Structure formats: structure tokens, C-alpha cells
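Recall from the previous lesson that a structure prediction takes nothing but the amino acid sequence as input. Here we apply that procedure to Response regulator transcription factor from Emticicia agri. The sequence below is the only information supplied.
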Amino acid sequence: MYKAIIVDDENRSVETLSSIIYLFCSSEIEVIGTANSIQEAYQLIQEKSPDIVFLDVEMPHGSGFDLLEKFTNPKFEVIFTTGFDHYAVTAIKFSALDYLLKPINIEELKQAIAKAKDRIEKKNNQQNFDHLIQNLRNPRDKTNKIPLPILNGFQFVPVNNIIYCEADEDYTHIYLNDNQKITVSKSIKDFEDLLASYDFFRIHHSFLVNRDYIKRYTKGEGGTITTEQGTELPVSRRRKSEFLEWLSNI
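The prediction returns the following C-alpha cells.
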């Protein structure tokens, strides 16, 4: 049985999440405490040593991220909760940690708990926390690393190493500047959402490209771009005008 605490400044949110966990996840996780502030949560974690912390992103007098920075080597896993799909969610995704949007979806909660349990067993959370703090301190920094799911975990790759992404049904091929190609079981839409603020553009339903590697655009019905490495990629006709506008806004 895994021990959990809930950190949220809204009592209603605490009660709701506690009830959902009790009703649908009580066979694998037990809520052993709750806190309404960063300081309360810090003391509770020190006293109770939970396995999992459900952590609200935004609270008065500090964010959930401020709590994490108090721990140099966290021994617990985190599942973030938030009522807003904002900039912080991108940082969380970049760190390979999980988040839940309020109101909490039961199936998403079960999936997040399963992933947290897996990370606990593999004891590999420190790298995830380090990447989270780095991405929060330096948003839009292309040296930030993106987690690519591989067979036994994640491979963290700097954003500025990615030339382009290619869709292949439910998979995506990631092409890197060291001639490496990584195939992951995520859709290209997932990467489009994740990389949009890092100067990537979906030029075609099959291709997402990094502006830094575009060498040339050639006119045509939609046209084509040529990467610094010499690869030609098509621009779809319906995305052409938006792409050219994006390309001109340096």
C-alpha cells in the first residue's frame, strides 16, 4: 500500500480528491494527511514520509514548485493538480512527471498513480525533478531537455538537438542533429503542443520542424523547406500562409 498526502489550499478540492481516491483507488493508495500551504506540506512530508504527493500548482504565498525546491533529494513522487492548462503544464510535461486538470478525471487519476508507482519502483525521480526546476527557471530555453519515452524509461534530449518530427500513425520519429532517429509511441500532436513555444511549426500533418534548422523555403502549391542537413519536407497548402507569416516573425 502506497502512502499519499494531498496539498491544496482549497478544502473542497482536498475533500473531492480524497473521496475519489478512497472510492476508486483504495486498494493501492492511502491518503495519510493533507495540507493547505507550502509550510504545512513541508512539515507533513518531513513527518510522514509519503510515497506520493498530490500537489496543487498554484497556492497563496508560493507555488507547488516552491515546495519541491525545499528538497535537495526528494524521496517521494509528485502528481500535480491544477485548474489551469497554462505555462506550468508544459514544464511538467518536459520533466516526465504527471499532472491532473481539475475537475479530476477518474481514469486519468488511475493512470497517473500507475505511472507514479512505476517511477517509485525504478527509483528514478531525481532526474525528473531536476529537469522540472531547470525548465521552470529557464522557460523557452532550447537547451531544456524533452523526455522521449523508450522501452525502459525516458531518454532526455535537448530541444535544440531536434531537427524535425515525423508522424507515423500513433508513433512519431524524432530526427536529431547527430543523425540519430528515435521512434516513440506518442502522436505528433503531443509534440506539437509541447514544442510550439520553442519555435517549432507543424508544416504538414506529418511534419513538425524546428525553425533553427530551416535553411530554405521553395515556393510551390504548398512549397517545401530544406533543412540544414539537406532534407526536403513538404509544406501543406492549407498551412502555407500561416507558415510563411510565422517564418517572417523572427
